[in-house]
Amino acid sequence: MSNDLPPLPDDWSRALAIAAHPDDLEYGTNAAVAAWTAAGRSVSYVLATRGEAGIAGTSPEVAGPLREAEERASAAAVGVHDVRFLGHRDGVVTEGLDLRRDLAREIRRARPQLVVVSNHRDIFGPGTWNSADHRAVGRAALDAVGDAGNEWVFRELIDEGFETWSGVRHVAVAASPQPTHAVDVTGCRDVAIASLAEHRAYLAALDPRPVEEQAREVVLMTTGGEDGSARVSFEVFG
What we know:
Elements: E1 14-19, H1 29-38, E2 42-47, H2 60-77, E3 83-85, H3 97-110, E4 114-117, E5 123-125, E6 128-129, H4 132-148, H5 156-159, E7 170-174, E8 181-184, H6 189-197, H7 200-206, H8 211-223, E9 231-237
Parallel strand pairs: 1-2, 1-4, 2-3, 4-7
Antiparallel strand pairs: 5-6, 7-9, 8-9
């Protein structure tokens, strides 16, 4: 389907990618990020949680710092060096005012023209239910884009030094079941695979196969398979 979609608008120089957990952005979106940074665009990441509840048999106290370190290494592999963690509790993220405020703060801080958000839809695709954290963060991020530009919403952010930002031109929803645009990521698969493979502890806990094999399978699946052009699709607003 992505071969039939128009390209994502390119009238921007700064992007902010928002997700619920470490590794969320590495399931295809990182290939687009690699293409953007290679073209000289600036990309920052904001993660609502540290993914501390994501490794079976590993306590949150151990998993949180481990997954944060893996995410920073993964982001660096695709040219992203500004990675922030909001500290919301993994697995029980609430779509409420606290999350909207935190995300609006980060949008005002980064001042992006493009915001990439988690899939907020109920599903990823047929028969695949989306997680509560993904839905909460995606929906709150969409609202926070508007909040960031409203001087009367979260007035305390101005007291903290974060002036309003209404410069977001486009919001791109990653892994949406209703894609409208695509990004050509030809030539970026290898770096995207290396990026996902940085989540070694997380992937090793999911599957006994070598981490690099898992990463390659995921990236090929999310960018179009072995043959043909490599593309990553998004649902774009604006």
